Amino acid sequence: MEKKYMERLKGKYCKIVTKEPGEKRASVVTGTLEDIDYDDGFILVDSSQGLGCLRINTVVAIKPSNKNKINKKSPKAKISKDTKAMVGIGTLIVFIAMILIAAVASSVLIQTSETLQQRARTVGTSTIREVSAGMTIEDVTGYCDENKTLIQYLALGVRPRAGSKDIDLSLAHMSIKYDNLSILALNESLVQSVNTDGKSVFYTPVVSGSNYTILDNVSAVDFGVIVLHDADGSVTNTYGMNSGDKVLIIVNLTALIPGTNGLPAREDIAGEIQPELGSSGTFECTAPAVFSNRIVDLW
C-alpha cells in the first residue's frame, strides 16, 4: 500500500484485512493502527488481543471503523452477558442444593441420635436389671432318714440379691446334678409359711393344721417353698420375692436318686436356681462321712 495513504490512517481504529502468502482465505484484524515501520515493513496494531505486528506486504486492505459500533455488534459482548447470567443461576442452584442436603443430613443425624439414645437407654436398663437382679443361696441343710444313712431332702435357704427387683418363683427353675441332670419347677400348691406349732421346719404342713407336709408332696419334677420371712405376704400370695424375703426351697432327693433313695455319705451334689431375669444362685456340697443327726449342715 502507498505510504501517503498509510500515514493518514495512523492512530485510527481500523479493520485490517491480511492474507499470508500461500493461504487461500484472508483474515481480519480490528484495532488501532499505532505505528508504521517502513524500513522493516511492519505495522503496529493495538487490538482486543493486545499489541501486535503485521507485515505490510500481507496487508490487503485497511478500512477505518467506528470502535463503539463494532463493540455494539460484537457477539463477544452478548456471549459475556449470557455467560454471567448462567453462572449466577448455577450458583443459585448449587446454593439451594447445599441447603437441601444440609437439611436432609441434619434430619438423618437427629433421627439417628434419637434412635441410638433410646436403644442405649433400653440396653442400659436391661443390663442393670440383669446384673443387679438375681437369687442367692445362703445355706444348704440336709434331712436324713430315721437310720441316719442317707440324706432324703434338701432345704436351700434362698433370698434375693442386694438391690434386686422382684423375683417370681413360679417362673424360676432349679437344676440338680448328681448321676444325671434334673430340672425342677415350683409346685404352687406347696408354698406355705413356716409352721409355728413347735415342730421342725421340715414338718411344715401343706395347709395349716393338716397332717400332710410339704416334704410328703414334693416329687422328682417340682420343689416346695417354706416361707421364713415375708413381711408383705408377696411369696404366699403371688409367689413373688422382694427385698428382705427369705425362703427354704425343699427338694426331694429320694425321688431324684431312686437307685439309693437318697444321697449317700461322702457323695457330691450340686445345683442352681435360675430366676426369670438376673443371676442364678448356685451350690455344691459333699455329704459328710457320718450322719450324727437327722439334720445335717451341708453348706
Task: Offer a concise description of the structure.
By secondary structure, the protein is α+β, with helices and mostly antiparallel strands.
SSE order = HEEEEEHHEEEEEHEHEEHEEE
Rg from Cα: 53 Å
Secondary structure tally, helices: 6
Number of domains: 3
End-to-end C-alpha gap = 130 Å
Strand order of the largest sheet: 15-14-9-10-11-13-7-6-16
Unreliable residue stretches: 73-79
Mean pLDDT: 84
**Percent range for β-strand residues:** 35-45%
Shape: rod-shaped
The major beta sheet can be summarized as: 9 strands, mixed
Structural class: alpha+beta
Fraction of helical residues: 25-40%
- In total, the number of strands is 16
Characterise this structure.
With about 300 residues, the protein is α+β, with helices and mostly antiparallel strands. It folds into three domains: about 10-65, SH3 type barrels; about 75-100; about 135-295, no CATH class. Helices cover about 30% and strands about 35% of the residues. The chain has helices spanning about 5-10, 65-75, 75-130, 215, 235-240, 255, and strands at about 15-20, 25-35, 40-45, 50-55, 60-65, 135-145, 150-160, 165-170, 175, 180-195, 220-230, 240, 245-250, 270-275, 280-285, 295. The strands form three sheets. The protein has a nine-stranded mixed beta sheet. The chain has a five-stranded antiparallel beta sheet with strand order 4-3-2-1-5. A hairpin with an 8-residue loop joins strand 1 and strand 2 (about 25-35). The radius of gyration is 53 Å and the shape is rod-shaped.
